[in-house]
Amino acid sequence: MKHLLSATDLDASTATLVLDTAAEMATLAGREVKKLPTLRGRTVVNLFYEDSTRTRISFEAAAKRLSADVINFSAKGSSVSKGESLKDTALTLQAMGADAVVIRHPASGAPHRLSTWVAGSVVNAGDGTHEHPTQALLDAYTMRSRLGRLAGLSVAIVGDVLHSRVARSNVHLLATLGAKVTLVGPPTLIPPDLRTEVSYDLDAVLPDADVVMMLRVQRERMAASYFPSAREYARRYGLDGPRMRRLPDHAIVMHPGPMNRGMEIAPEVADSARSTIVEQVANGVSVRMAVLYLLLGGKS
Amino acid sequence: MTQYLLKGAQLPSGERADILVKDGVIAEGSAKDAQIIDADGLVALPGLVDLHTHLREPGREDAETVETGSRAAALGGYTAVCAMANTSPVADTAGVVEQVYRLGREAGLVDVQPVGAVTVGLAGERLAELGAMATSAAQVRIFSDDGHCVADPRLMRRALEYVKAFDGVIAQHAEEPRLTEGAQMHEGEVATRLGLTGWPAVAEEAIIARDVLLAEHVGSRLHVCHVSTAGSVEVLRQAKARGVRVTAEVTPHHLLLTDERATSYDPVFKVNPPLRTQADVEALRQALREGVIDVVATDHAPHAVEDKECEWAYARPGMLGLETALSIAVDVLGPDWDLIAERMSRTPARIAGLDGHGHDIKTGAPANLTLVDPAARRVVDPSDSASRSRNTPYAGMTLPARVVATFLRGEATVLDGKAVR
Ligand SMILES: [Zn+2]
Question: Is the pLDDT of residue A81 over 60?
Fold first, then answer.
């Protein structure tokens, strides 16, 4: 594997290898010295065109725990904000000897374009409304560690699927790993052609779900008539306490963050024992270590 | 003036003939002073006419000029092109259309017939001085806000009515703008997978349906630019069956390429309207054969490198077309030369009111013609293009047929497959 641009780049055995490697990486976190020498002398660039402190810090921690040199290139205060093209930035990174570029970008496909201009590996850290493959990997990792398996799990992904890169990557990866995905939300926000189950009725889906993944819903979507009001959205598709209690006892509740408490998820649910939201963050570092390790570790 | 004798050329009718080009017309009589061109195995077509060309001058001379676009056109077998109005400044006054017209004359490689904007600044708010453009030296007959849709139904109605006074036609870029805000590619499975905002087929079909009803209501001519969907074909089929005076064009790229091309995220495949599905491609081909779609028009849209070597969402839409259109028509329609002459020369000349073009090759007709080698195969190399831009979507593809020579009013603009100047 040269790049990680899409969850569709991963077949079942590669995806499982990432998750198994992440599990090994996680054991590091319990040790006194949290570093491995694996990527010493290698350079990882975090190229962020969108503010996302959470994701950037996660990748930065992952690279540093593997002893890589990390350069943070953010859109603010760099040549990027002065209108330099992605291609020119790519050539600069190339000249700096970047072994891997982790890119977050508001335009779908920007990581694909970048991968045609640099020699190093490109990791998609979220592009537009396309994909966010390491988020899907950490979600799968979290499900597997909580529920012991992925094959056969019923996963409901609830909310603004249309604009969600997290949902796209999860649909692909979970299908690869044998889980059954149902997309739930108002018809305006569920694209009809993702080749997976669709339901417009959250209450009907909950009793059979092993996992409920709540997506962030931006209030701006109301202005474009995707739904009438936050109140109506929360009433029809928000996960509150009574709804949570319709879930099977073992079921977990996930959210990629950042949350709109009171909109798609009630505080009572976010803070419940079913919620994996905090461990998703911790698992993110392990999974990203695994990805960087597998992309770069074999070389040099 | 050099005389040419094209020996043994095949005409669209299938007959073979020696064609004497003399004093700007197809002549009879002595050919003793003529330069002889061996046309054995070549097909002579009436010079091609493009209803939809973006020449970018004035304003974006880094992407194309009237001269470089004219050269690309001649190399593609064209003797006339209609230059779209979305220049900077916009061709919405007699002054700008006359400037473009004059630049075309100076280049002298094809007849450049300016298209006038329907509305001031293409803003879709009030009519441009259509009559002034019609009576200018450029004698504008086609009016279009191409790049933008004349979305306001009242304004569209008035435009259709107003141009009847000088036998004008409104060429509509059919795109309901409220349905395509932020749109990046055809709305469908591929767009969903790629996370690119969809441009739904219905945004085109709804405008065409509205406009054929408006044209019917006021008894005017309507021309529909770059039809791209199977649904649009059905709307047009029904309108024509009712006798509505509507004509329509399809681009070479919509006849050949599909939305799957976007999977590369290479914006060379970004175009407006977007590449559609294989089912749309099949419907467009069938409609072109049947005449529901009247014309192949290139929508030749040169763009500078920096407007294409970037993220998909930031790239400008459009692709080159003049030098490859004939090859794609041959690829799609087969070597049916009479049909190709109809769809690429006679009919577009008639729609544009270009009296000197689109004539059959016979004695006395203006010597606007092109010689094509139907047996040739060529691999498209963007760096070979005469256009100032390189955004061809066909790079590396092998296409049939090659233009050997083109004549504009008896003067060679292309000989041996090369522009004479
Ligand atoms: Zn257009």
Answer: no
Chain B residue with minimal CA distance to A192?
A: B189
Angle between helix B153-162 and helix B201-218 axes, rounded to 10 deg: 50
At B349-381, the pLDDT tens digits run 999 999 999 999 999 999 999 999 999 999 999
Please say if the pLDDT value at position A299 is more than 60.
no
| pLDDT tens digits for range A141-159 | 999 999 999 999 999 999 9
Q: pTM for the full model?
A: 0.95
Q: For the residues B75-94, what does the mean pLDDT come to?
A: 98
The reply to whether residue A108 touches residue B194, judged by beta carbons under 8 angstroms, is yes
Contact residues, chain B, for A108 at CB < 8 Å: 184, 194-196, 265, 312-313
Q: Within 13 A of B92's CA, how many CA atoms are on the CB side?
A: 19
Judged by DSSP in three states, B19 sits in strand
Q: Is the Cβ pair B313, A127 closer than 8 Å? A: no
Range A133-277: architecture per CATH: 3-Layer(aba) Sandwich (3.40)
Q: What is the pLDDT of residue B240?
A: 98
Contact between A17 and A294 under an 8 Å Cβ cutoff? The reply is: yes
- Quick one: how many helices (H) and strands (E) in chain A? 11, 9
Catalytic residue among B294, B299, B307, B373: B299
B50, with CB counted inside 10 A (0-12, 13-18, 19+), is buried
Binding-site residues of A for L-aspartate: 82, 165, 216
Question: What is the rounded average pLDDT for all residues in chain B?
Answer: 97
Query: Rounded to whole angstroms, how far apart are CA atoms B391 and B379?
Result: 15
Superfamily of domain A7-131+281-296: Aspartate/ornithine carbamoyltransferase (3.40.50.1370)
Q: For residue B249, report the distance from its CA to the centre of ligand 1, in Å.
A: 11
CA gap B115, B170 in Å, rounded: 10
In the stretch 166-225 of chain A, residues with CB closer than 8 A to chain B read 168, 191, 193-194
With CA atoms as reference, report the closest residue to B209 among B188, B186, B238, B185: B238
Distance CA B194, CA B313 (A): 12
Domains of chain A, residue spans: 7-131+281-296, 133-277
A7-131+281-296 and A133-277: identical CATH topology: yes
Contact A107 B311 (CB under 8 A): yes
| DSSP sequence for A81-117 | GGT--HHHHHHHHHHTT-SEEEEEESSTTHHHHHHTT
**Residue A105: is its pLDDT beyond 60?**
yes
Note whether B309 contacts A85, CB cutoff 8 Å: yes
pLDDT over threshold 90, residue A78? no
Q: With 0-12 CB in 10 A as exposed, 13-18 as middle and 19+ as buried, what is B234?
A: middle
Above 60 in pLDDT, residue A285?
yes
Domains in chain B, start-ordered, CATH in brackets? 47-356 (3.20.20.140)
> Residue B323 and residue B388: Cα distance in Å, rounded?
12
The whole-angstrom separation of Cα A122 and Cα A1 is: 11
Q: Which residues contact A63 (CB under 8 A, 6 or more apart)?
A: A39, A44, A46, A70, A288, A292
The mean pLDDT of A184-204, rounded to a whole number, is 95
